[in-house]
Structure formats: structure tokens, C-alpha cells
Design a protein that fits this description.
The structure holds two protein chains of two kinds. Chain A is mainly α. Chain A has helices at residues 3-20, 32-56, 60-82, 86-107. Chain A is built from four helices and no strands. The relative contact order of chain A is 0.20. Chain B is α+β, with helices and mostly antiparallel strands. The relative contact order of chain B is 0.10. Classes of the chains: A mainly alpha, B alpha+beta. Chains A and B meet through helix 4 of A and helix 11 of B.
Amino acid sequence: MNKVLLGLLLGAVLGAIDGASAWFTPAVRAQIVGIIVGSTVKGLIAGIAIGFFARKVHSLLLGILFGLAVGFVLAFIVARMQHGYYFEIILPGSIVGMIVGYATQRYGAATPVPAASR
Amino acid sequence: MKFLSDKALERLREGADAPDLTGTRYRLLERIARGGMGVIYAAEDQTLSRRVALKVLDVPIPGSDFAHRLNREAHVLARLEHPGIVPVHDVGTLADGRVFYTMKFVEGQRLDLHIESVPSLPDRLRLFLRICDAVAFAHARGVLHRDLKPANVMVGAFGELLVMDWGLAKILRDSVPSKIAADPDATIFQPPDALPSETESAQPTAVTGHGTVLGTPGYMSPEQARGEIAQLDQRSDIFSLGALLRFLAEAPARQHTGRSNPRKDKSLDAICAKATANLPSDRYSTVSELSADVSRYLDGLPVTARRETFLEKVARFYRRHTVPILLIAAYLVMRILLLVFSRR
């Protein structure tokens, strides 16, 4: 699977799971659907960005660090919009970004080089 | 009366032994090594202006077993065109009747010396896989090496690896691909019987009831050591490869490399043990099977030579996926901690 598609799918799935984990917090359980959708969209965006990065840069460490940065920034924006739950949103979002960063570097297939550019 | 010194005598002997290359395109440069039945010289191919290794018979007896054998070695090598096998360039007879052949001049180190500068076990195993490729190719062409050992593998200055000294090679009639068998230029030889070893480092041989022992103790299969030449098949080379693998896994690294000596584990031990089993039927049946198992070991996958316990499987899985396991564990631990603290 190519790196962008892998990042997109993994970002969406892990984002959805991360969002669903809000069910364990009784205070926000009523808004669980909105949280899952928002978290999935955040995961999609992060996944695409991380996937494109993985296509350009072939480094496991840089991939993980980029995932961490993207996950952190997007989660921070979401937390700002929520006016709270900074730790609950930013920490898991950053780790999910690292997981996607690792997976795209490790398991994503390199995009074939077009014959004309060889 | 004044006697000649040993050194002067040796020089005189060398001069007398030096082959007369008149009428050939080669110019003698220097002596490189001496074998059981011939000498290897560095020579210059004057037509192509390149250095070659020239192997020439000691005794000028055309039609002798030795001449037949050297000729045969050249033909075996000519059949084996592979990047891991030293290529032969030319074969012929000198003016004095001695048979010779020329091959690529390999500048490098013998594997037994080179390995001291390779402290990493994976790097050593990758070298081993390249040897396996060359031997598997030879087997596919119906040729057994019969004297595989570190001293018969050269590692070139640019990392090229070449399996040398095919003087004991045995051609398996049955295994010759039909394409070669149908080739009118191809020469199919009978297995050599009762011919002496020509390898420099070969140990003294011993005669058995079945035939003459050819090979090197420690690397020679039990059936080869018993002189059962007719029974030898590719599993005999697999035994030698297993012994070579054990050598690569255990040979100490040079001290100043700053790395500890490689340590093999139970799986690699099991691969060596299976390859060097006493009974050929207990060994890997092909070199490809052996190299596939070594590749699996290198990739952190289970090997066919050994059944793992459950704990070993878990440990191997962890070693293969350390980063994602740690990341997922970190996520879960953090989620649990957040949950615990949010409920306080």
C-alpha cells in the first residue's frame, strides 16, 4: 500500500478509536458521535500529511518526529476549539501521530518512479 | 668448496620451475601460491593488458591424471559463469607440455582473514548467503565443489566475493541440465577417483576402502571423509557450508574494531547443526533451503531447523516490532492514566 493511502487509512482508523475512547469520560459521553467524527477527520488530515512526508523523506526517526509534530499541532487546535481537555486531547493525538509516522515509514510502499524520469 | 645457501637454492628452483610462456599472450610477473599439483602465478595478458592469475601444472606430462585434472578444473569453471565464482579466461598447453589455465586475478583477502574485520553477525551472514548463491548455482549446473572452506573464498577489495579452487569439483552426471548435456561443446567428466588434493591448506589425506579422501577435515562431510565418492551429492557441500557458517558465527573479530565478538543463538546453532548432521538425510536437501533458513534468521523469523517455545516466539515478536509495541503501550498507559486522574 502506498504511503499516503496507508497514512490516510491508519490516521482515520486510529483517530476514530482515539475519539471513541472519550466514551470512558462520562462528562463528554453525550457528545461521543461528534468527538468520533472530529477525531476521525483530524486523523485523516494528519495521516495525509504524514504520508506525503514519508514519501519525500525516508527516515524512521524523522517520520516518527514529524508524526508527533503534526499530531500535536492538530490536537492543540482541536483542544483550543474545545476550550479545555488539553492533556486528554493533545497527548493521545501526539502518540497517534507517532504511530502513523512509524507505520508509513516502515510499512508503506515506495511510489514507483515513472520510466521517463529514470 | 663453497655450498649454495638455501635461499639461493630456492631461487634457482623457482627459476627452473617458472613456466615458459613463449608462444602465449602472457608474461610472467610473480608467483602467488603453490598447490598440491601446480603453482599459481600472477601474469600479464599482453593482448588485453590486464593482470590474470595463471595456474600451471608442476610436471609436463601431457595426458597424465594431473593434466587431465587441471584441464577439467578449467572446464568446470568455464561452465560456471556466476558473479560469485572466479571466471576462467583461457586454457592451453605450454611449449614444455605443461597444462595451464588463466583466470581472473582477484585482489583481496581470503575469507578466514577478512572475517576478523567484520564484527557484525548479520554482515557475516550476508556474506554467507552470497557464498550459498554461488554454490547453489554450481549445484544447479551439476557441479559439487567438495572443498568449501573459508580459505577457498576470496573477498575482493570492492566487496566482491568469489568461491575459488574448484580443483576437487565433482560433476554429477545426472544433475547436468539437459541444455548443457545437449551442448556438443560441453564436456561431461566422470567423477575423479584417487586424485590428490591440490589445495594449499589441505590436510594429509587417508586412503579408505572406497577411494581416496579428498577435502579438508572439519569441512569435509562424513561420507566424503569415508571416501564414498560415488555417494556424494549436494548435501556433502551443504555439510561444508554448515561448517563454514559455524566458523563465520564463531570467528573472533579483530580487537581494534571496538565491537564485541558476534554471538550466535539457539536458532543459528540449530541451522549449523542441521546443515552438518552426520546423515545426509538429516541435512537440508538443497543449498536454497539452507540459505532460506539463514535469511529467515536474519529477518527475525522462525527457522525450520528448530521449534520455538511460546516465550521465545513472544520475545522474537517483540524484537521485530519493538517500536510499534512501545508506541501502542505508551498510548494505552497514557489513556489509562488520564482516565484514572480524570475520575479523581
